[in-house]
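HOLO CASE FILE
Compound: SKM
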Amino acid sequence: MNKPKLSHPVFLCGMMGSGKSTIGEKLADKIGVAFADLDSVIEKSEGMSIPEIFEQKQEKGFRAIERNQLIKLAGEIEGILALGGGSLQNQQIVDHLKIYGWLIFIDTSRADIFERLSDPTGRPMLETADELTERINSLFDERMQYYEQAHFSVQTENKSVDEITTEIVKKLTIYEGRDYH
Ligand SMILES: Nc1ncnc2c1ncn2[C@@H]1O[C@H](COP(=O)(O)OP(=O)(O)OP(=O)(O)O)[C@@H](O)[C@H]1O
Ligand SMILES: O=C(O)C1=C[C@@H](O)[C@@H](O)[C@H](O)C1
Ligand SMILES: [Mg+2]
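Model generated. Tokens follow.
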């Protein structure tokens, strides 16, 4: 029997280290659709790693590339797209993604994020921070207004990747059965 496909793409948002890439890959596998990771797409298109892009073009340059790739992909992708932690840069991007697909917030507690990001190597947004906890807290504070606008969120506290994925599949089934678009 054919696995049911999605009628709209799925965009996973949330903080660095919340599990977007890990969950996205598993979710795509479970549903039987394609998976893409925005950070990987950017690295491939630029021929550089994310830290190299930050070094050469600073955050401003990276965000411009990220915006352009995201807007392009949003209209093309047919499966699951894991966003970067800072991809919801402004209200226009949130509105755009919510028109094209389902925006899901991977809601991981600050305590879990602090633990997972205690080594900031390879994460340019954190590498230069004097006080890591303060830096992560301020990113949370800035970004929550956008994450909270997702169609739905999934809390990850004390849940395995498999449990989270199953929860998303269940919620998606309900959302896809209704005409929210
Ligand atoms: N539910 C979970 N329980 C325990 N560990 C998890 C869970 N989900 C993800 N992780 C771990 O947390 C780390 C970060 O996950 P991942 O790279 O998928 O996050 P991300 O949201 O894609 O981060 P970034 O925005 O930096 O790309 C990985 O080591 C992953 O194995
Ligand atoms: O939270 C962020 O600002 C970032 C998260 C990563 O996914 C990458 O997109 C990059 O390191 C920036
Ligand atoms: Mg990721």
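CASE NOTES: Helices lie at 20-31, 38-46, 50-74, 91-100, 110-116, 124-127, 132-147, 161-177. Residues 50-74 form the longest helix (25 residues).
CLOSED: yes
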